[in-house]
Amino acid sequence: MKNLSYFALSFVPGIGPILARQLIERIGSAEAIFQEKTRVLEKVPGIGHTLASEIKRPEVLQRAEKELEFVEKNHIRCFFLNDEDYPRRLKECPDAPLILYYKGNADLDAKHILSIVGTRKASEYGRTLTEKLVAGIALRFPDTLIISGLAYGIDVYAHRNALANHLPTVAVLAHGLDRIYPAAHRSTAVEMLGNGGLLTDFPSGIFPDRPNFLSRNRIIAGLADATIVVESRETGGSLVTADLAISYSREVFTFPGRTYDLNSKGCNNLIRANKAALITSADDLIESLGWNTRYEKKAESQQTELFFAATPEQEKVLQLLKTEGEKHINEIALRLSMPIQQLSTLLFELEMNGSVKTLPGNVYRLKN
């Protein structure tokens, strides 16, 4: 009866996760809610006559019975809010879902969990950042669980790179487990069942409507130690996820981009508003999180850099700074007979690559 009561409570119109939690605390248990008299339920703050009547409708329990049958038939694991095995990080969040539906084998209480999100229209820059970030995390912490939303763009790149690097990865869905959206990512979702999983707080029969994506973002933020926004426009779901993570007192990180790149505008805004810490590599992220490790840097750790080998133009800049020490950007441009606009781009790329450090007043030097 316990499981059935949780399902039933989740199907009562007008009762969300916060009110459901308050109701359980007041009455004592999910089972007791459906055994309680209507006049008692009406007196619970936030319930009243209308919601008390909805709780007592027989259709609620009928829908719950069908969902329980679906769950058992498809071997779906359910986490109920008051159970000990409910993911501990998510349980700390005030709006944690009453029920989580899960297919997979990843540990949702893993020692290290990161959420990686971003724009659906990822650029080559964003794809490269995702690839190198995940590879760097896998190199140092191969037990890290990667969370994202299976959406187009950065989300699915995060999942696919996690799989490629043998990291467990879980997709948080905006619909029930009786479907996969987008359908184009079905093969990735199936592969994740072998090393990760699919998670949702939506029951069967629920379609991926727009509000559901915003709702599921709280799970992406709440499950993880930190959220990394790889690439984002000025508005978008990944920024909502970042704000949710902040509200849960979780850390948020992002990669900077050129000021004129639309896909980096949201990231740059996060940094400017002090909502996210700037990172340029997996090493930056790991250091900022304070994860303890006996890892010692080897030559192979250069794989964690976020850019490819220096171009001939970049080499000229590096060689000048190596030979003559720190230089103002105007001096560099003069010595290399290079337009300021072109040089600015090169210096930005070298700074992102960890090769160059910017000093106050547009002065640059090699990074130690």
Task: Explain what this protein looks like in three dimensions.
The protein is of the alpha/beta class and 368 residues long. It folds into 3 domains: 73 residues, DNA polymerase, domain 1 (Orthogonal Bundle); 190 residues, Rossmann fold (3-Layer(aba) Sandwich); 60 residues, Winged helix-like DNA-binding domain superfamily/Winged helix DNA-binding domain (Arc Repressor Mutant, subunit A), CATH 1.10.10. 46% of the residues lie in helices and 13% in strands. The strands form 2 sheets. A 9-stranded mixed β-sheet has the order 1-2-6-5-4-3-7-8-9, with helices on both faces. Strands 10-12-11 form a 3-stranded antiparallel β-sheet. Helix 11 packs across helix 12. The chain is elongated, with a radius of gyration of 24 Å.
Number of E strands: 12
Percent of residues in beta strands? 5-15%
Tell the overall outline: elongated
Helix content: 40-55%
* CATH level-3 fold name of the largest domain: Rossmann fold
N- to C-terminal distance: 63 Å
Radius of gyration: 24 Å
Give the CATH level 1 class of the largest domain: Alpha Beta
List unreliable stretches of 5+ residues.
294-308
CATH hierarchy: architecture of the largest domain: 3-Layer(aba) Sandwich
Major sheet attributes: 9 strands, mixed
| Count of discrete domains | 3
Give the overall average pLDDT.
Answer: 89
Class by helix and strand content? alpha/beta
- Number of DSSP helices? 17
Give the SSE order as H and E letters. HHHHHHEHEEHEHEHEHEHEHEHHEHHEE
Lateral arrangement of strands in the main beta sheet: 1-2-6-5-4-3-7-8-9
